[in-house]
Fold:
Amino acid sequence: MTLLEKGSRPSAEKRAGGDHPETGTVSIATRTRTAKRMPASPLAIVTLIILLGLVVAPLIMVFYGAFQSGAPGLPKTTWSIKAILAVYTTPTYIWPLIGTLILAVVTALISVALGTLFAWLIARTNVFLRRTLEWGIIVPLFISPFIGAVAWNILGAPRAGMINSNLRWMLGLQDDAQIVNISTLPGVVFVMMLYFMPYAYLLVSSSLRNMDPGLEEASYMNGRGVAATAFRVTLPIVRPALTAAFFMIAILATGVYTIPLALGVNTGFAPLGLLVYLKNTQYPTNQPLAAAIGTLMFWFTLLGIYFYRRAIRNGRRYVTLAGKATRQRPVRLGWARWPATVLIAIYGLLAAVLPYIALILMALTPYAITDLRKIQASFDGFVRVLASIDTWHALLNTVWIGLIAPTIAVIIASAVAYVIIRQRGRLGGTLDYLSTFPVAVPAIVFATGMLWLYIRTPLYATVLTLALALVAGFMPTATRFISTGLMQIDPSLEEAARMSGASRFRAAFTITIPLIRPAILSAWSLLFIFASREVNETVLLATPNTRPLAVLAWNDLDANDPAAAAVASILLTVFMVVGILISRFVFRTRLDSSNL
Amino acid sequence: MTIETEEATAVQAGHIVGASLRVKDLRIAYGSVEAVKGISFDIEPGEFLTLLGPSGCGKTTTLRCIAGLEPASGGTIAIGDVVVAGPGKHVQPEKRGINMVFQSYAVWPHMTVEKNVGYGLTGMSKAAAKSRVDEVLELVGLTKYGKRYGTELSGGQQQRVALARAIVTQPKVLLFDEPLSNLDAGLREQMRFEILELQRRVGITAVYVTHDQTEAMSMSDKVVLLNDGLIEQADVPRELYRRPRSEFAANFVGRANILPGELAASRDRITVPGIATPVIGAEPAEAGTERTASAVFRAENVKAGVEAERLENKWPATITRFAYLGRTLDVQYRVGELGVRGELPPGTPLEVGQSITIGVAATDIHFVPRAED
Structure:
């Protein structure tokens, strides 16, 4: 996601000053060397201030909170190092820290391995039903991991889970037999893998698609078969994408606490993210301690984003410009064709089909009965939830958040992208860094900072706080979409407008923005989905009046009412599907593997 | 590339290691669209054959089909005595014993030059592979760059890496897919000679795809001119230029003047509407040319003034336009209603609107069938 090539200057100079003066490299180097940095424009300064407020302020507040003596907003709260000492100098948090890191690394490894295998199978081989299978991998991206966890709790709980209670009578097993148990750490890894794997798939798959087919064909021409080509040419070339996916998923997994909680994992070990949540919300609360644990997580995710950015930058070295769109001959899998197809289909089944079957069944069962023989379908559950004013309130809040957060995000991201790519001023690098930075900050840590930042302002306990918290988290995605769109537009189109007498302002509004409209709309649509399903940040910031549907489902689950949680989850899904359909048919945007 | 080859013992000048290639009635279809519609040609061991044609004529598709990267939908391809593609048969590309230089060079960015070149050397000891790589790197003049990564090289150097990687496996046939199209003009000319010299020295059979007629004419033993998936003409370069068999061939290989008319019974002259006297050729039209035909002649054979007066074909003309091109003057004449293009020495005094006699020798006139519009 680095938009400025920081390493480009020295390497270009090395090339030009070196021993082969024959081609056009010299002129490239001269151009780079003489390119002047313009002074920061007013737009750049305003954007910087906004980003500082959105991204940096909450982070500072996490550290501020860690040095306080009590809950934010209370009059007797003063400076204190008690929380910091407790986190950094006692052994209490060593094991949660190590456990969290192991959990994150294992999840990331499995997700990347599977995502790469799937990407290769779909991009390069003759598996059956390629299009359908690809949708099977992408659709889980639109399902909230939290909803997935709710569904898997219904499916795989050790005693009353649908899988266990039904396989028992089907296979004639004893009443206490357990075939699956999702309420375990492997269960947490499994569910995280289901919903994080598509990120790895998308990164690797786009890398595979952008690869010059000649690179693999040259390997075949040199007498190497499919396996040697895949491992010695394809895999090394997509390695930057693998590394980027690994760190992205590891950072996500470090911060996730809703999944272990939704799965009802009850082991001695609690991941750090879960501890932050519990210290913030469960009696006896200790917000400074939560903030201090947040700072501990922050250091490790910071390390993660360092490697992530490095991977992305190295990826640039491998970009092959000769993107001649020759249709590549797919690899014939032979006997492995069916197993490969079935493997991907099983993933789609576990990540999307089974969870929704479980949710629908649960929503139709008033008394949380999981034995299929005893289920008496009724709409009572639906009626009960829909009759509640809370539900409609939550739906309205979801609509508001879904409209406000993406809109603010794309407006700021457009300004950021314009400054970075078109103005190339002094602040470009800083803005680039600030806009990608939220990738490194786990949602729960960010929400903790927001809590400390806004508690004494009139914004606290409004839907706007929730939206603003989400905007910061959306900046990396929004900026990436819009910068890519902007990079594809020839700057001379704007220059021609300026030559025809338009001001910079008018050129931007009449030429640039209409041309990047598709990129803006796809960014908006994707963020709309992310905003609607978000739960990691909103849980901490929402009040009964401002909670969206996802948080309502969370509270239902907390209140031991899985049927109501299932109904809320289904409502949320319907809401997102309507949103996707509107974006598809009204805005004419397409969200698929080619642009996600 | 170095000329000193004394050390390169394994590769001897004039020693032919290539195999023959026979393509028979080859058809390649994508769904319902047929890109190649039944073409046949043969290459003898050590020959250099070029597939020439405009973009979309099927030349790259044909090459990729020889490589095994595209399946054939009909016909056969044989390398040496082995049929590699035929009814129900598709030998995998890596099993065909051939190699290819790609248009994008396809130099693997994650490997050094040495690793790139040595990649295809399997089943030999490390030491043997290394000496083979060194030998080939010397042949292409890249000895100093063995430890560099592909992306650190200039376009011309990447081109040589691709070339070295393609000859290192001693392929029976070497395929070139527009290898020079990404280079600038000066380097392109230099690489043309280097590739040709290398091909001669290694004695390899080469199939070369290009849309550039200069490349095709200067490098090939034989040129196969393709148009819309069919062979327009397959000939040695000189014949293709002197005796094009169609208006398309005449126009694609060096722009030609084409005068449509009707062939006389004697078949050595043609009546062109708008020109008083018939256009006379030294040789009669080939058998099979119908009555509606065209006279073809090259711009450099159009003489003017006194020189034109003693030629078999001479016409009164008006100069409509001329341009100074350095070595020649490019002149546009009007003969009756027809336009004729000619070349004159750069010193000739000319004026637009000037009347002048132009002429073409009967030996420079050639008849082709009229193209259907």
About this structure: Chain B touches chain A through 44 residues (CB under 8 Å). The two ends of chain B are 48 Å apart (CA to CA). The first strand of chain B starts at residue 21 and ends at 30. Residues 255-369 of chain B form a domain with the OB fold (Dihydrolipoamide Acetyltransferase, E2P) fold (CATH 2.40.50.140).
